[in-house]
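Example complex used in Figure S2.
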Amino acid sequence: MRAAIRAAKRGEKQGEVPIGAVVVYEDKVVARGYNRRAKLQLASAHAEMMAIDKACKVFHSWRLPEGCELYVTLEPCPMCMGASLNARVDKIYFGAYEQKGRSLTNELADANLLNHKTEVVGGVLQTECEQLLSGFFISLRQKQKEEKEQKKALLAMEQSASND
Ligand SMILES: [Zn+2]
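Predicted assembly (164 residues):
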């Protein structure tokens, strides 16, 4: 999970919402990914998709070898759960829980549509993963607030200049 957190931070440096994921096989990280939605402007550019795609390339197979595990800092969305099932990920560990309580993680894991069972464990390094996201959004709001105040100050200056 620490490697997934590091990947998330790499994304954050590029202005992305910090979400990171890694694929682990035989206790080794074989692929890393982070959210790149803003940079690529792709709805599918989630951290998990990036990591799973890379892992498939490493193994030259859409079907990952038995024992592959996915670590991701935030509870996966339905798309990423679907990709994990399709790639035959055996186990998913995630950090922070989906805040709005609308996740389908367990339902999708239980649906077993592909005759493949993916086990899911949530809340791994939960606090750290939560802080990663909340810290990002707090500083984003702060930045937006500052920009707003700057605009306001600028507007006031322009107004007083035109009144002269
Ligand atoms: Zn996703």
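The mean pLDDT is 93. The two ends are 60 Å apart (CA to CA).
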